[in-house]
Amino acid sequence: MSDFPHTPPRYSATFTPAVNAEIRRAAASGIYDIRGGGTKRHLPHFDDLLFLGASISRYPLEGYREKCATDVWLGTRFAKNPIHLDIPVTIAGMSFGALSGPAKEALGRGASEAGTSTTTGDGGMTEEERGHSKTLVYQYLPSRYGMNPDDLRRADAIEVVVGQGAKPGGGGMLLGQKISDRVAMMRNLPKGIDQRSACRHPDWTGPDDLEIKIHEIREITDWEKPIYVKVGGARPYYDTALAVKAGADVVVLDGMQGGTAATQDVFIEHVGMPILACIPQAVKALQDLGMHRKVQLIVSGGIRSGADVAKAMALGADAVAIGTAALIALGDNDPKLEAEYQKLQTTADAYDDWHEGKDPAGITTQDPELFKRFDPVLGGRRLKNYLKVMTLEAQTIARACGKNHLHNLEPEDLCSLTIEAAAMAGVPLAGTSWIPGRNGGY
Amino acid sequence: MQSFDLGKEGLRALNSALHALKGQTNMTKWEVVNPKGAHAIAAGVDAPVDITVRGSTGYYCAGMNKLATIRVKGSAGPGVAENMMSGTVIIDGNASQYAGATGRGGLLVIKGNASSRCGVSMKGIDIVVHGSIGHMSAFMAQSGNLVVLGDAGDALGDSLYEARLFVRGKVKSLGADCIEKEMRDEHYQILEDLLRRGEADGKAKPEEFRRYGSARKLYNFNIDNAAAY
Fold it and tell me: ipTM of this model?
């Protein structure tokens, strides 16, 4: 027995316990991990940007006294009836099927009370949602589940979904355990089978066809409705330019932090770009075409606070959309339900098996016993409160930067904390005028 | 008979006039001349009217049709009668890709041939093609009937759900999870009805067809079927 001390155990930085656990899980099950939500990896994000605030060269506005407007018009390019929202924070598309009927109702209630829009998802338009949403955006998806001209006409806007940030290039998936009689009927498929939503539209391919498709939807709806085009954060410069060329009124750009109801973990974590890197490219495309502020840009993927809203808008977005944050506001992943999360072998704030339909909060489920627990009136009130707080936060920052409208925020109001964020956002590293990849600076 | 010169009056005026027919029955017969391959002709009609288009059409003719009978005296471009809800659409010539895509009801008749992806993702529509259909037809087809008097191209019925496919001629190949199935009495009755309504009863008999449907092996994910995906 030597008197020398043992080398202490050392974990590999490559084969971490989490990596090894996934290898063991794959070896035991023979199937990739499927989960909901967005990426969980650390990424350059809005937290890597700061506002500079006012100084001698900029003067601020008085909080609670001097007005800082928050409204936004969407669809002013071609639509006869563009949308006017009181706040620039919208609710992203989430399907009935992925979410319960009461959860969709709560989203409609909260959004309407806060003066903003909500969005359908794969699976069609429900009465709960239409009835409780003052402004409802109807998604036009590759699956066309439930698609019909009557719903197109009773929507306030139409969103042609080309991709989403959690899985650019991927379709949807609603596993059999969430297919109730009602979900099956709306999608015209047998109960209990996995429902795949195609990754490409069935009747158009490429930007030239998209232009003709948008034209058809405009004809069917008599040119009344704004038409959005939603893309995942893959090639935002070209996707934005092509959406504009195809005739979009609004471009919706979703970064890889954006959530999904169910997809392979490998897809969520390894495909797409963070929203911070996407916004400047999309704005550049709009500016190059002379369409910035004429075709509106809505960005989503990891928006959590009024600070995130203000930063996205300072980079050039007209509005933002929230999905995951809205679900948390409704009560998803609440530590109050920890005992139930433990039974599902997970913990509050980490629960992501939304596809299994066992959500103790009654939000991402079709089980009537579970969704009975969820109160859509209370949920709607919580969402309204959260949207109001985000708006107040964004206004606080905008006033500090001397802006009387959130749309007046600009990149010059920002600095970056990291070189990566400076390069992606096109905002100088704090204390310098250096934007990596651009000429000049120091 | 209302006659509409599309070349002179334009598409917006045509569709606007057709949409205004909802809820009234005065002008039930329409004729559209000079279509010149325009897109979205008679898209979104929602009235039991009779429309004849004298010439060929571009993309999405009769898109999302409800109740109307629309006859094209020529050929139709991609996506004819896409997402049709009800009514009847009859193409005297050929149809391009995605004919009847995602259709939820009604009857689409193509007197000539249909190109690839005919009946893609169909959700209840009935389609009768007097000629042949191209590759990947009835891909992810959910419900309804596709009747083909001629041949079918590669990968017929790939990832099929509950739609019924009837082909009289040769099938170049079947797609994943699509198999030939037994013809039962109910299927002969469906065919007899569709051939009659599809203006093909003098051209073919129900007993000349074979039926194809889903093997239902891909309905729930199973790692042992991964090679089929």
Answer: 0.96
